[in-house]
Each structure stands twice: as C-alpha cells, then as structure tokens.
Design goal:
This protein is α/β, with parallel strands linked by helices. It contains 12 helices and 14 strands. The strands form 2 sheets. Strands 8-9-10-7-11-12-13-14 form an 8-stranded mixed sheet, covered by helices on one side. A 6-stranded parallel sheet has the order 3-2-1-4-5-6, sandwiched between helices. The radius of gyration is 20 Å and the shape is globular.
Amino acid sequence: MKNGRIAVGVLGIDHRHIYGMLQGMLDVGCEAVAWWTDGEPIPTNGFRDRFPDLKRVADKRAILEDKTIDLVLISAIPRDRADLAEAAMRHGKDVMVDKPGCIDVVQLARLRAAAAESGRIWSVDFSERFEVPAVTKAAELVAAGAVGKVVQTVGLGPHRHNPHLRPAWFYDRAATGGILCDIGSHQIDQFLFFAGLDDAEIAFAATENFANPAHPAFEDFGEIVLRGRGARGYVRVDWFTPDALPTWGDGRLVILGTEGTIELRKYVDVGGRAGGDHLFLSNKTRYEWIDAREAGTPYFGCLAADIRDRTQSAMPQAHAFRVTELAIQAQRLCDQARQPSQ
C-alpha cells in the first residue's frame, strides 16, 4: 500500500459482476494495476470498454507475485474462484470475490484455512445487498427501529435467462455449483443480516428444471426456507424474468418486523415510478414510498478501510463463510434428494 492508496489486481472476468466490483473500488480511491483472465470470455469487450487503460497480463502469476497489489478481485468461472482466492491470500493479498465465493465444502475448508493462516480478508460481493442503495436505506430504518424486531424476510431473485448470451459453463452444474449455491446466496446473506443472526439452518430446499429440457442438469427455479433464532426466511430464485421487463430482474425483498414492514423493489417498479431503489415502509405511524437512490453503497469504502486498518466493518469474516456454507448446504440437500435410494 503506497501512501495509503490501495492497489487492485483482477483475476478472472467471466461474469459481468466484475464491472461493478472494480468500479466500486475505484470510486473509493483505489488504483487498478492489472488484470488477467483465461481466454476471451464474453465480458471481455465490455471490460475493455469500461477500463481501457488497465493493463492485461498474460500470466496470473504477474498479479499474484506483485507485492505492490493489496487487493485481488475475482469473477472467474465459479468452480475456479476458490483456487484463485486461496493463491491470492497465500501471496499476502486480500480478496473480494463474486458470488458464489466457492461451490463445495472442500473448497470452503481450504479458503477458511487460507484466511486463518494468512490473516487476509476473504470478502464476497453480495451485490444484491452491497450494490443496492435501497438496501442501505432499509438497513438504516431497521437499525432505527422503524419495523421493530425483524422476524422474517422474503427474498425474491428472478433473473433473465438470455440463453443466446450464455457461455457453455453456465449450463455445467460442476462449474456453477447450482442455482441455490449461486444466486441463492444473495438471499441468505440478506436474511442473516436483517435478522441480526450469526447462524441459521436450512429447513427446506428444492430446485427444479421447469422449462429447459435441452439442458437437463440446469436448474431454472429454486427455493429455500431458513430457520434462525427468533426469525424465519423464505428465498425464491429463478431464471424466468419476463421479456418485457426493462431490467434483468424484478428483485424484491420484504422485511417483516413486529411493528412494521419494509418492501424493496430494487431494480424496477412495475407500478410506473422511474428507476430503481424503491422502498415502501409501513408501520404504526408511517405508510409511504421512499426514493432510496441516494442512500449510497458503503460496502466498498468500508472494505477499503478494512484493508488499511485490518478491521471487519464491511462484513464480518465469519458471515461471509457462513452464508457461503449455508448456500452449499441448501444445494446439497437438493442433490441428495435426487439420488436414487439404494
């Protein structure tokens, strides 16, 4: 770290989430040094357009072995993220990884060991919380007691399929980890965060392929019921965003408290209000729509502070690991249910 400025390298740009990950760190004063990716994944042209002056290196070791780089961002194919993150931590670098941070319990154990032994940060950019100002505003309201004690969250994560834009690995279950391991992790993160829980259990999990017979291993629908101390959570994720919707998904979160309710329409309001970040609050004294677009996204600045100060303000390390573990557990329950009985 030179003059308090964090230097950033990128390993893997197979998912477009890398755009927001890197831009978020640049916006809080970090300096991008170099990037590497395997081959020419679909987001490559978009990445070059957004960051035209950033140098590409031919070998990932150029980033791993560069002692000036403090933070590595990883948005490779999900199956490859754990290897890259472990290598980065063991080379003395903090890590921000796209979700899912890893896809099985063996990878997770290795990551936990690497973080503990290296003292490095392993952070997962749960973008449906960290990159959504409406969630920031909801967190402020919940902390202020606007809905009382949170007793349930309902997280809905529809996504647009766009099969003509998907690489082959998208349909490879061994590459993605499955729908619950992947996009279900967003909703698990939000449940634990808003319910104020360190832990929970998977009470129910299911996945289906309702409409994609050409890809029999592909899961286009998933749901989870979470049970925690004093709170419950329901998750539904899918690949059924309607074509007419002007965004990739009508992501919603309902936070039920003992004294009120918050509903977020994160990306679009089908009722006609422009833009995203719509928050609807109802409690004993208020019933209103709140435009939350200016609430900010503090995750990136907090992570930068954590890198400098060795703190955990962006997200407790234990939370990142436990959310990932619960998502893997939910997926394994579904996988085990499909196995024929002996």
